[in-house]
Amino acid sequence: MAVSAQSRPFLVGLTGGIGSGKTLVSDTFAQLGVDIVDADIIARDVVAPGSEGLSALVEHFGSGIVNASGELNRAALRERVFSNEEEKAWLNACLHPRIRHAMQQAAANVKSSYGILAVPLLIENDLTGMVDRVTVVDCPEDMQLARAMQRDGSSETIIRSIIASQATREQRLAVADDVIDNSLTPEHTCEQVKALHATYQALASQSN
């Protein structure tokens, strides 16, 4: 947990494994009037057509990673880096600083009493220092697997490989300041979000 920076609002880092239900939680915070900084959206923006990020990727990997409409062909890029650790490291070194900088800019523009920084790989990418509090959306791994397979239409093998590449459930819970149990009903999850919303408003008020 980081000390709150005066140059930005109070920030809560929201994370969880694939299929844990982060979207339900962040959507509920948004419905309560909380500004959301979504790392997935920012990650797409930094490689949008015409961006410096995409230009850097094309210069390194070639035009084969861009489709006919000028957008990044993510499947082609994945093929290039999937089994090549050097290329994967280069890709991360190229994009992660851009994503982090864009997240910092977006966080500085939060207008609500506190902001949610929604980052699926908050722990894996060592970004907990960007936030004042870490909230983990949690459910059993077999539930993650079933939800992710149903949502993405992916095979069990692919989802299991993604789960294996992420922090373990134990690692996430070890760094959590707050845990949202998303193993029951959506209503149960939303009630936990509302309770935490009141807590975060109070903490933000104290920090300011």
Task: Describe what you observe in this structure.
α1 crosses α9 (186-207). By secondary structure, this protein is α/β, with parallel strands linked by helices. The protein starts with 9 loop residues before the first strand and ends with a helix. It has a five-stranded parallel β-sheet with strand order 2-3-1-4-5, with helices on both faces. Mean pLDDT is 92; it is low at 1-5. The protein contains nine helices and five strands, in the order βαβααααββαααβα.
Defining key terms:
alpha/beta, single chain, globular, 208 residues, five-stranded parallel sheet, disordered N terminus, 5 strands
Helical run tally? 9
What integer value in Å does the Rg equal? 18 Å
Name the helicity range: 40-55%
DSSP summary, beta strand count: 5
Instruction: Give, in order, the helices and strands.
Output: EHEHHHHEEHHHEH
Arithmetic mean of pLDDT: 92
Distance between the termini: 17 Å
Strand content: 5-15%
Unreliable stretches (pLDDT < 50, length at least 5) are 1-5
Shape: globular
How would you classify the helix and strand content by structural class? alpha/beta
